[in-house]
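# nightly structure sweep
# worker-07 picked up a monomer target from the shared queue
# config: single-sequence mode, recycle default, output format = structure tokens
# input follows
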Amino acid sequence: MFRARAHANPLNETLFDVPIHPRDVNWAEHFPEVLGSKKADTASSSSEPAPVVQFADVGCGFGGLLVQLSPLYPNTLMVGMELRSKVTQYVKERIVTLRREHIGQYRNITCVRNNAMKYLPNYFEKGQLTKLFFLFPDPHFKASNHRRRIINEVLLTEYAYVLAPGAWLYTITDVEQLGTWMREKLDSHHMFERVSEEELAGDAAAGLLLEATEEGQKVARNKGSTFRNVYRRLLVPRAAA
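# output follows
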């Protein structure tokens, strides 16, 4: 059985390789069946640009959301980002096994070790992402630790930078206090507007926020409450109220 700590402190100094610029990331190593052949095609012809990563699951845990999203969006490249090294390695091995057991499938997902609170722009160009997920993040209950929360005013500006206009940012938690915190931070940010429940009903990804992750499944088994907040990245800043 694989065991790991539920969360890691994102403000600790942890040593691991980080690209200096998004162009330094060798995504072909992560998506060899997609980008390996595409790179060869591009070198020999003037074909369309190679696809780029468009979905990111921050704090992806054991990769449950990625695995569920992969067949729903088979032509979209997506990455899970996880700070814990052992968990990152587990997800990588899980994906390798899935690719081996299901030929031609799961070739559009990968996982990297990263501290998204510090290095998200090191991986993505401006306006690159169309979906960004934060599922069951660490609530950091103590007031002195609120600066560690993954949703805050400063980081939302960074997320707006890597998200394309019209892109969606997804959050869910089983901690009401944290759900209120994330909603208030997003409501007050000038680059985001709330997505209506009617729109969410037609979005395949929104329906996976609870059931796809191990944490969400545990909440469901215990018949706990969840607090979902999904927002759209605006084209231009919203006027101050």
